[in-house]
């Protein structure tokens, strides 16, 4: 694997060198940007002139004299009050791209050298409950962030902090205890049956719980038995977890997302550590007793009437809750998994919880200065009416139903366009297009914003959609097939058309974009990059004939641009968790 330095980075370096040569003490940033007028524009000289009290245009001219040109940089012009317009050489563009093309796996993108370990807490449904649209975003965003981070060389460890512990299990287990055999062994059910079994048991036990005080009492005792590790109780609890996992796996499969069993580490996994967490917090004085409960207070977190809002580590009845498991999980992730970053992809409505949990862990010394903790809080999925997404009956939308509908809609689109596809192929593509559409709609919006779930828009062939990108990819594959014996090959000696340069410079920026998007946890920046890539490709294709280009060298060189565009689309989409079918 050879890593390639992007032209942006190379130009940046040359400019930095020239600035240092001109004003050694200043440590000025060239402030390089892509530009419409030339390839790049550098705006940093204005600030430097101000600092050095020189005339900016004169200073700019002086800097230009110190810029090494002739190979990468073809031309530098001073413009306006002291901007620099920079044009890179066609040859440099093609050579850089050729080096990327030769590394079909990583496209020349280097691995970062300060890689750490990021534990990503995402896709955390709750046992014995149906997954709904709220679980969609965490899964989709978390998976994309992992894809991007891994690509930069960061090591990610997934944690699916499923809700598999708590008082509600007393009721469920007691019911199962009194009505044995209502849950089938996991190997005998598929996802849908598993969920309908769980629903049935849930409803039945709930009915007993509400109507029968004696059952209620037995359910309460069952909670105590569960928490104290009673064997029989744990066995029945395990049945719920196993049955739920069958269901989760079926939904994640529909989502075309890999979930590994060893990364499903739910709240229950921290059960044993919770008393110690509480004891340590109390001993250190981080947590205090208040009305029987063990709580942590914060100066800046107050509720109504300016009353402090505490984080409850242990309830007055001795029970541990959500905060205790998260605090215990932090200890595990830092000490045992050696995490340098803890990333939580959890609904923004839980941001106060995480603020309190992180602060508590900092005070306790479990989160040191060398560990970053971040809640990537995402916004709400809205319906077409701009209100939180609900069914027509006002119920929360089941995740499976929503995915099924997306695939169905995609099938219509694929069928309409399909020329040489069999029915099986149409169904397979429909899944890739439909699920891709759902993921892309989510990922192309900044995570912290709400977005409207609008299937018509999501599967539209025009505009910023995954289908548009998938078609761009498939069209390129078809061109490459049509080229037959003529293979893509770079010809650095050829001059480039403006549309080729624009496409080429954008292709060259893939790695820089992934690094930026990963560092900022901003999948929408990668999505925007890919959309722009497809748009630049379209205008290249409009303006520059490929198979009918003037010379055979030109045909090969343009095929090479096509092929690298396809590889970059494929790689970028894969990082987001989206497929790119070869034919559509
Ligand atoms: N299971 C929770 C829910 O459905 C999300 C868990 C988030 N992760 C965490 N470490 N608290 O709301």
UniProtKB/TrEMBL annotation:
InterPro entries: aa-tRNA-synth_I_CS (IPR001412), Arg-tRNA-ligase (IPR001278), Arg-tRNA-synth_N (IPR005148), Arg-tRNA-synth_N_sf (IPR036695), ArgRS_core (IPR035684), DALR_anticod-bd (IPR008909), Rossmann-like_a/b/a_fold (IPR014729), tRNAsynth_Ia_anticodon-bd (IPR009080). Residues 469-584 form the DALR anticodon binding domain. Its EC number is 6.1.1.19. Belongs to the class-I aminoacyl-tRNA synthetase family. GO terms for molecular function: arginine-tRNA ligase activity; ATP binding. PANTHER family: ARGININE--TRNA LIGASE, CYTOPLASMIC, ARGINYL-TRNA SYNTHETASE. It comes from the Bacteria. GO terms for cellular component: cytoplasm. It comes from Streptomyces caeruleatus. The gene is argS. Transmembrane segments: none annotated. A motif ('HIGH' region) lies at residues 125-135. Its main location: cytoplasm. The keyword Protein biosynthesis applies. One of its GO terms (biological process) is arginyl-tRNA aminoacylation. Residues 9-88 form the Arginyl tRNA synthetase N-terminal domain. Gene3D superfamilies: Arginyl tRNA synthetase N-terminal domain, HUPs, Isoleucyl-tRNA Synthetase, Domain 1. Keywords: Aminoacyl-tRNA synthetase, ATP-binding, Cytoplasm, Ligase, Nucleotide-binding, Protein biosynthesis. It catalyses: tRNA(Arg) + L-arginine + ATP = L-arginyl-tRNA(Arg) + AMP + diphosphate. It holds the Pfam family Arg_tRNA_synt_N. This is Arginine--tRNA ligase. It is found in: Cytoplasm.
């Amino acid at each position: 694997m050879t890593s390639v330095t992007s032209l942006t980075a190379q130009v940046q370096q040359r400019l930095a060198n020239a600035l240092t040569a001109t004003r050694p003490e200043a440590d000025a940033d060239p402030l390089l940007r892509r530009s419409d007028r030339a390839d790049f524009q550098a705006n940093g000289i204005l600030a430097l002139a101000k600092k050095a009290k020189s005339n900016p245009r004169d200073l700019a001219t002086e800097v230009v004299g110190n810029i090494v040109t002739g190979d990468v940089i073809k031309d530098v012009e001073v413009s306006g009050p002291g901007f620099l317009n920079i044009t890179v050489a066609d040859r440099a563009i093609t050579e850089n791209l050729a080096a990327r093309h030769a590394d079909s796996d990583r496209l020349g993108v280097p691995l970062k050298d300060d890689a750490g370990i990021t534990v990503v807490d995402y896709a955390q449904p709750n046992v014995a409950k149906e997954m709904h649209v709220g679980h969609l975003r965490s899964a989709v965003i978390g998976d994309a962030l992992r894809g991007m981070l891994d690509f930069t060389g960061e090591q990610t460890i997934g944690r699916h902090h499923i809700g598999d512990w708590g008082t509600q299990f007393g009721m469920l287990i007691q019911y199962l205890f009194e009505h044995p055999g209502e849950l089938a062994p996991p190997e005998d059910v598929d996802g849908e049956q598993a969920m309908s079994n769980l629903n049935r048991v849930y409803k039945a036990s709930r009915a007993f719980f509400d109507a029968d005080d004696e059952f209620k009492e037995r359910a309460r005792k069952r909670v105590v038995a569960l928490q104290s590790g009673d064997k029989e109780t744990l066995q029945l609890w395990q049945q719920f977890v196993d049955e739920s996992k069958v269901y989760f796996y079926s939904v994640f499969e529909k989502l075309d997302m890999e979930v590994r069993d060893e990364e499903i580490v739910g709240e229950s996994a921290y059960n044993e550590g919770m008393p110690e967490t509480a004891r340590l917090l109390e001993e250190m004085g981080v947590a205090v007793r208040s009305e029987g409960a063990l709580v942590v207070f914060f100066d800046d977190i107050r509720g109504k009437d300016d009353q402090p809002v505490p984080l409850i580590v242990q309830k007055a009845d001795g029970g541990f809750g959500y905060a205790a498991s998260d605090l215990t999980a932090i200890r595990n992730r830092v000490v045992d998994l050696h995490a340098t970053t803890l990333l939580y992809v959890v609904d923004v409505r839980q941001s106060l919880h995480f603020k309190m949990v992180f602060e508590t862990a900092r005070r306790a010394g479990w989160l040191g200065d060398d560990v970053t903790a971040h809640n990537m809080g995402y916004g709400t999925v809205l319906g077409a009416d701009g209100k939180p997404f609900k069914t027509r009956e006002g119920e929360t939308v089941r995740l499976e139903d929503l995915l099924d509908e997306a695939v169905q809609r995609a099938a219509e689109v694929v069928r309409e366009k399909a020329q040489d596809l069999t029915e099986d192929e149409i169904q397979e593509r429909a899944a890739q297009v439909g699920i891709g559409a759902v993921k892309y709609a989510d990922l192309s919006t900044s995570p912290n914003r709400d977005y409207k779930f609008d299937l018509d828009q999501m599967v539209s062939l025009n505009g910023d959609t995954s289908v548009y990108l998938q078609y761009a990819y498939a069209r390129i594959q078809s061109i490459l097939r049509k080229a037959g014996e003529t293979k893509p090959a770079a010809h650095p000696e050829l001059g480039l058309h403006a549309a080729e340069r624009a496409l080429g410079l954008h292709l060259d920026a893939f790695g820089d974009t992934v690094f930026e998007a990963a560092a900022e946890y901003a999948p929408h920046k990668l999505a925007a990059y890919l959309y722009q890539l497809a748009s630049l490709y379209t205008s290249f294709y409009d303006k520059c004939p490929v198979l009918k280009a003037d010379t055979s060298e030109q045909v090969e060189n343009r095929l090479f641009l096509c092929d690298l565009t396809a590889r970059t689309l494929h790689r970028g989409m894969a990082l987001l968790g989206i497929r790119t079918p070869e034919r559509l």
